[in-house]
Structure prediction request, 772 residues.
Amino acid sequence: MTALASRHRAFALTASLLTLTLAVTACGSSSKKTRSTGPECAAYTQYGDLSGKTVKVFTGIVTPEDALLKKTWVPFEHCTGATIKGTFDKSFETQVLVQAKAGNPPDIAIVPQPGLLQQLVATGKAVPASAETTAMVDKNFSTDWKAYGSVNGTFYAPPQNASMKSLVWYSPKEFKDKGYTVPTTLDELITLSDKIAATGKKPWCAGIGSGEATGWPITDWMEDMMLRLWGPDEYDKWVQHKIAFNSPEPTAALDEVGKFLKNSKYVNGGLGNVKSIATTAFQDGGLPILKGNCSFHRQASFYAANWPAGTTVSPDGDVFAFYLPGKTAADKPVLGGGEFMLGFRDAPEVHAFQTFVASGEWATLAAQGGGGRAVSANKAADVSKCTCSEIDKLAFQVLQDPKAIFRFDGSDAMPAAVGSNSFWKQTTSWITGQSTKTTVDKIEASWPKG
Amino acid sequence: MTSSEKFTSMLEAIGLFVAIVGLIVLVASRFGGRRGDRVVAGVFLLPTVVLVLVGLVYPALRTIYYSFYDAAGSHYAGLDNYKTIFTSSDQITVLRNTVLWVVITPFVATAIGLLYAILVDKAKVEALAKAFIFLPMAISFVGASIIWKFIYEYRPDQPGVKQIGLLNQVLVWLGGSPHQWLINSPWNSLFLVVVMIWIQAGFAMTVLSAAIKAIPEDIVEAARLDGVKAWGMFRFVTVPSIRPALIVVLTTIGIGTLKVFDIVRTMTGGQFDTSVVANEFYAQSFRSNNQGLGAALAVLLFLLVVPIVLYNVRQLRRSETR
Prediction:
């Protein structure tokens, strides 16, 4: 009897919870919007009257960044009368593919990887960008970005936000005290490292420990060096496996990384010998800079969040970063990531919303919103309005630079057997003593056949 | 899916469950008498059998089937995946590590448990002493791994830097220099094995202690009258008397060790040549997207566990019938 009673209670509880949820959802959905035509909407007249139309957006961006994203949509909704309905789900990457294959995709998917974009387009359900969207992207973005939003020469998805990885963290105070200047070429960086090493200090510190993903920071290092030594075209060939992983170019790139990370005169400042790189968590890799045990740490802009509370991150603060220089001062290869708005429904409101996200208005709105959604590669964005950190401003400037050549993180685009297994594993063994030749040979051998 | 949709589907699922259980009870209640009992038993067994078929037999067959297919599971690959397991140098390291684990852990853990059980038997502080060694059993594998990760933690030997790992601090106190325990293969696997032994020794101790207490007092007395010394008592009285318990403990730990995954994944992530079959199976299936090789590794693991399970079950039965 007690079991039956408790089942009754459970049922009652579920029922009341359900009622509550329904009520909350009902409150949440707003009534039909109408279009405003105030002066604040001058830039939005091009999108026309979209009253009563709804665009369903699906993304893997979740709390707290979803709120920032939603805020950037408000002026568009206000001025066109359209409703943007966002679904924010961590399992986006697996879900969206299932939905597209099942013929039930969202209107727009915010895709964070070129590989996934290609898979989604391959389902045949994606819709190419409209002429207006294409014109907007041509105006505001470099050809690199447009190429990443294209599949087989057809342009599909305008870029949204961007992030940057080619950064070297350092101590502005040390530079000021010792009279060092920020290097503008790779050779200058090596000369400066030698100079610091000559004082008895280990100039570089690194950590690649990340559980089963141990090794991934080296993949970023190698990608950066591949871009710097051989340029974007060879980089693309390497990522697409048009040249073998153990061919001379990648081998030289890994050796170039070795000049820093396997150089016992350079590493591992404040953390031990070369091998200690393998056991140091990547989050701890740059911390010796604060104690003055190390001068340089190469890591993406997100590392700003890893400094302990109270650390000032600015050009004259405790730590800051400089752009990992190219071979010459004129070379500006940038390694990073970004998101693309892939449309699945051929309707004016969907195209209009894609165009809006590619516009300078949207990029400025995002910059004003700050936080993790601030940075984009949109050249029309007004950086002066950015409420972002100094490091985001730096990323913004580097990404907007007309000379910048942008490339996506290559290991993400490689097959999983390489990009999230052997590349990590073998470069970790490389740090603990394996030769460069054996390392690239083993990674090449793991590349899936066919 | 919105939350209301999620709740709706949850309610549907609960409703379906209630309906099926109701149906089974209803059908079962229709039968009575002696023949009816069998039908009732059959009806009640049916859901279990169906669930075992759907949740165990079908996936097992599917896994075996996929182990003969390529990475994407779309082309027949014959025995290629199995060939890879036994020929590629990475996979051979995985097998070597698994052998290391299985050969060392059960015997050392059982030996420590047995020794401890005998030592504390009838001691004054028996309960307390037992609690100490049993405590690690209460900690999850992941928790234990994190504890041991701290024990092995390394900091360089230089001014201004302090050790935070227990083992290295002890080394430094003794005048040595800190060591990176988890990097050099195959020794690093042994340092991981220690964690498993630390956890399992308590289990061995508990079971064996109970078995020792069950040895009839008259046998012990008779042996003592015959002038048997401590070693003889252990060799000729204790061990033969608790043999079934010993075998159960050994095989149970053996099975657990074969399937070990959490410790490796938490402490090294399978890096530095420490991967074992279960960890490699996960890495291949879910990280490398190589379903074929992952399935083959799962099948191999299954084949390795089955004989031990069979032996274990047989021993259990034999000791029950005695």
